[in-house]
């Protein structure tokens, strides 16, 4: 069975993939799982999605990270946010900092590596979706 990284009760874990019937924007209805491309314009109606997956077309395409931040900060989306497609263990840390709860890696062999790299630092200079405080705010 395929596996992924998922944040459960604040901790990242390797989990089995649950079968989700993802819907495109055209076929999506409130209460179901929505999958969008990185160039989609976030809409307030998306707040009614059971989950939102952002499909990354290439590992070098950072628009999915920006879209995740917009969903969390501008719309206040608090549901499950999934990174799918061409994601790589090297960006797991950035995916988590931008508000993703689930990371589907195409190569399952890299799950252990991604899990180790997802939170490598004890403090950050920049605030993020998951932490509004920076190292400068915490300095006493």
Task: Give an overview of the whole structure.
- The model has no long low-confidence stretch (mean pLDDT 85).
- The protein is α/β, with parallel strands linked by helices.
- The protein is built from 4 helices and 7 strands; from the N terminus they run E-E-E-E-E-H-E-H-E-H-H.
- Strands 2-1-7-6-5-4-3 form a 7-stranded mixed beta sheet.
- It has helices at residues 63-74, 92-97, 111-117, 135-138, and strands at residues 3-8, 11-16, 22-23, 33-37, 51-56, 80-85, 102-103.
- It starts with a strand and ends with a helix.
Short note summarizing the structure:
The protein is α/β, with parallel strands linked by helices.
Q: Which stretches of 5+ consecutive residues score pLDDT under 50?
A: none
Cα-based radius of gyration, to the nearest Å = 15 Å
How large is the share of residues in beta strands?
15-25%
First-residue to last-residue Cα separation: 48 Å
Strand order of the largest sheet: 2-1-7-6-5-4-3
- What is the makeup of the main sheet? 7 strands, mixed
Please indicate the count of domains: 1
User: What is the string of helix and strand elements?
Assistant: EEEEEHEHEHH
Average pLDDT, rounded to a whole number, is: 85
Q: Outline, from the CA principal axes?
A: globular
Q: Indicate the structural class.
A: alpha/beta
Helix content: 10-25%
How many helices? 4
Secondary structure: number of strands = 7
Keywords:
single chain, 4 helices, alpha/beta, seven-stranded mixed β-sheet
Topology, element by element:
Layout: E1 3-8, E2 11-16, E3 22-23, E4 33-37, E5 51-56, H1 63-74, E6 80-85, H2 92-97, E7 102-103, H3 111-117, H4 135-138
Parallel strand pairs: 3-4, 4-5, 5-6, 6-7
Antiparallel strand pairs: 1-2, 1-7
